[in-house]
Amino acid sequence: MNIKQAYAQCEAVTAHHSKTFYRAFSLLPYDDRQAIWAIYAFCRRVDDIVDEGERPDEQLQQFEKQWEAFVAGHTEDDFMWIALRDVFSRYDMDVEPFWHMIEGQKMDLTVHRYDTFAQLLRYCYCVASTVGLMLLPILAPHRRQQLKESAIALGEAMQLTNILRDVGEDMMRGRVYLPREWMNMYGVSEQQIAFGQVTNSFIDLWEHIAQEAENRYADAEKTFSLYPLSARFAVKGAALMYKSILHVVREQQYDVFTKRAFVSEERKKALLQQMGGENVEVG
């Protein structure tokens, strides 16, 4: 398989699994967006092992060995690894967030409840903030240190948004990501969640976590101007579209049990038009 074919498959994976992510980053210069698709394919591969794998423990262990071999210089004949090798040859990549991503996926195999919000944030860092850190060498290679904390904040915000959107779906998988300390504080039980009860106490708990997410979106937004113009548009667009999921849940009366909140194509276009005052150069 040649490198062009490898990247084409990575792009197809991205377009299929995350229309929001794909739309946000599709305006990057050609080489940069190809690299983004490869990184997304890596993250998707490891995430799918945990969520859909027949033997996730064994498969994740095998994936970790493949990653160790990759770091050591070996590249398997697989489109994702081929594309990722090219990314590592063209950009000054940091292996640490990739390791942390695998750590976060391991957590999903063994940890199905979180006692504190601090514990939940560690999980959010591993499975989401790491993505932002993986992308920084591509999006803003000369300002990585300046943007590190805001990239972490944006990842936490996005993962908290995922958690708030997927409460019912996660419960069906035997997972409750809402921190127990706050569930207890608001008087929300797992039984209520299992029965899909949208009570005032559940709404208050949901909004508490949503506020934490929105605070982090606001923190991240403070540094968007430090990104190069095309990357700034992509990051800001991704943040706006993800943040809008929270508004959709509110419009659906907090029903995260029988409805899946998604941002319509019409709303996505409106959000991008809202940003349209910036002159973005596209490769």
UniProtKB/TrEMBL annotation:
The keyword Ribosomal protein does not apply. SUPFAM superfamilies: Terpenoid synthases (SSF48576). Pathway: Carotenoid biosynthesis. Its EC number is 2.5.1.96. The keyword Transmembrane helix applies. One of its GO terms (molecular function) is geranylgeranyl diphosphate synthase activity. Keywords: Carotenoid biosynthesis, Membrane, Transferase, Transmembrane, Transmembrane helix. GO terms for biological process: carotenoid biosynthetic process. The chain crosses the membrane at residues 120-140. It comes from the Bacteria. Pfam families: SQS_PSY. This is Dehydrosqualene synthase. It comes from Anoxybacillus thermarum.
